[in-house]
Description:
The complex is a heterodimer.
Chain A: H1 2-20, E1 30-35, H2 50-56, E2 64-66, E3 73-75, E4 78-85, E5 88-93, H3 107-118, H4 127-130, E6 133-140, E7 143-148, H5 155-159, H6 167-172, H7 175-180, E8 188-194, E9 198-203, E10 216-221, H8 225-234, E11 239-243, H9 245-253, E12 257-272, H10 283-292, H11 295-301, E13 307-309, H12 332-341, E14 348-354, H13 360-371, E15 375-381, H14 384-391, E16 401-406, H15 417-421, H16 433-442, H17 448-465, E17 468-481, E18 484-485, E19 500-501
Parallel strand pairs in A: 1-10, 1-11, 14-15, 14-16
Antiparallel strand pairs in A: 2-3, 4-5, 5-7, 6-7, 8-9, 9-10, 11-17, 12-16, 12-17, 13-17, 18-19
Helix pairs in contact in A: 10-12, 16-17
Chain B: H1 17-52, H2 56-60, H3 67-76, H4 83-96, H5 109-144, H6 149-163, H7 166-180, H8 192-222, H9 225-233, H10 237-275, H11 280-289, H12 293-321
Helix pairs in contact in B: 1-12, 5-6, 5-8, 5-10, 5-12, 6-8, 7-8, 7-10, 8-10, 10-11, 10-12, 11-12
Amino acid sequence: MLVKRIALLLVCFWLALAGAHAGPAFTATALTIDLQGDPATLDPAKQYDTNSYDVYRNIYDNLLRRNPATSAIEGEVATSWKAVSPTVWRFSIRQGLMFQDGTPLTAADAAWSITRILDRQFNSPQYGNFNTITSATATDPQTLTIETARPYPVLLAQLVNLSIVSAKYVQAHDEPDVAAHPMGSGAYRLVTWLRGDHAALAANPRFWRGRPRIDEVTFRAVPEDATRVADLQSGRAQLALGLTSDDAATIKANPKLQLLSGPTERVAYLAFNTLGPSPLRDARVREAVADAIDTRALAQSLLGGYARPVREFLTSAHVGYDKAIAGYKYDPASSKRLLAESGHAGGLTLVFTTSPTYDQRIVQALQGQLAQVGINVKIQSYDFGTYLQKIQSPQHDWGDLRFGQWSCACLDADGVIYPLFHTGSIWSSFSDPAFDRAVDAARSTLDAATRSQNYAAALQVLQKDIPGLPLWQVIALYGADRGLRWRPTPDEQLFVFDMTLGG
Amino acid sequence: MPAGCRRDRPPRPRGGLEDRNAGVTRFVTVRLLQAVIVLWGVSTLVFAIARLSGDPVALMVPQGTPPDVMARMRHTLGLDRPVYEQYGRFLLGLVRGDLGTSYVQDAPALRLVLQRLPYTAELGVAAFGLALAAGMPLGVAAGIDRGGWVDRIALPFMLIGQAMPSFWTGLLLILVVSVDWHLLPSSGSGSLATLILPAVTLAWLSLATIARMSRSAVLEELDRDYVRTARAKGVAPRRVILRHVLRNAALPIITVATLDIANLLGGVVITESIFAWPGIGRLALEAIQSRDYTVVQAVVLVGTTVFVLASVVTDVLYSVIDPRIELGDTSA
């Protein structure tokens, strides 16, 4: 009996020891991020949507990056660069970078990343961003040489969005494999991707900037805004994207959560149809509309202050921004006077073409403000595909005004006012030869001073002719767990390496 | 001969199990052939509607993309060919089982749909089972005990579910059960716990229909002669219900339940979006919004196939439950 008891005690003791020797309890830091949708693909060259970018930006490195605080362009895979002639650029590639399968990252991979986008058969949606490049070659393992068709001042800004893929890996695997099993050199590698549900990433311990502080990150696709907020409240997610000012109060009232906000490069604007059969062909009517909009009130009351009124179509971070532009003051009296002068004293009806993609409260609020000066606005809403078809028609018969939010992901006036207002652009219902000359000159030189001068001239034309009214700079709202330390960046890049998750 | 339901039966023109099996097989074959025609019709309709709805390339590219680049993309995707040529290629692909490649996700459309189909099936079966398991007994109890507390209180409570839109019910459940009470996860899939809230949301729509149908079917049967006879004979009330009444009431209930599968397939779109459930309902919604023609076509085809198969199964089930029913053509 005693022997049995002792034996039992020994067994228990041994089991306890074995358990203790299993090692110290290790809790990996895990972060769950709720996105608005599922990534379409994890091949960087095959898509152009935020959800995919948010995920694969953490798997791949880009050629260049923007400083999170100043938005200045810095090196990432490239350490330095030089324009050896107006159309030839040379980039030095960082030493010692490795893809997650251990193979080294060289200039040949960078060159291949560009070349595959330029292949028209490949059908990359990003082709339009890089098609000024005529060739990209690795002149030696650490030097990338890029040649452009004409002097291209926005090249560096576009290269901020270029992810570097492994040439060997891409050439050895077929396309669906590259999309589903990405091979990058970034801070995280893909563990599982359940389409429609979540993508799980794990830290890459050999990342060249050091081991990431968060070990595992899961990106979940949650299309419904209210559900993302509920996920934060129930602890299922620690960061949620795409919140609106309506959710701000709920987040702020919860002691376990915090509201993160950051100005973006997106600018909300109203565009007028100056070329089609519209009363807005008359510049006085356009000025009347501009004077009737109280941007400050809209930003305060509708968006809870999470919008910064602007005086031009660019933010202060954009290249080409001119702080001397006056903008428009809210002046309903002036608006009524201008309407009378242009023969619309008895009232005017305008057609507002829009789509449910845009916040309809803003559209209706604009309608309300215009009603105060005697302009009757009829809202016509189409689903987004049809809306694009209508406003891009060369007949310019899409209506009178439309609301939009523009971002080129390049922080450069060339990506904003050129497509919006140049003659012949599919987005433009405006034509002015002086404007065209100015923006054409600004995009054909690398000289910063010349570009500045030309953009100042172009912006003055826009100020005078009012083909559109710039409204506000969009401020992005994120909900997060209080333990998350992260500052949202203006380029809205979700770089998990920069985040920490405290206790 | 036992008194009761069998007396109503007309004399059978044929006898024997072999004949019955042959009849069933022939019936199923004919129905499957009809199903092929239905699928062809549906796919042609979806093909036409998708192409009338707009240009997918405009939605795929960055805002500043010049039109010549977009035209080139359209050409590579084959979207600038004449419609009849696109249709011909589509039909050829259908026959081979190739439904094209998704424009947005760059993967075969059919594979994308089949990958996510099990999730919708899981949700649909759970909701359907829940609706039957809760709705039928409730309806039967309400019918048997007419005017009792089930009829007066429980059934109206179920009817509330039919009146509330599912996106509201779903969000309400998340708010109360997940955020306030911390009982279940607020979204996603992967475990039984995540299945409960979306299944309840989806089931609540069908619950009321099934409960009401059960109630009225039972009420109708209870009035019949055979029930009075059985009771007069002294058969225990429970046996009367289970053995006699339910078997006859089952037919209309099954009919309604099958029609409800179509409702479930539709309701699943909203429920999946609310709960971030990775099924084909959400896939369809996203594909429609991004003009991903191939995926839209694939989802519709798969959904139609499911529904058609379900209705064939139901028809066969009729003949199993009620031997009086002859499937298909009765002429010799």
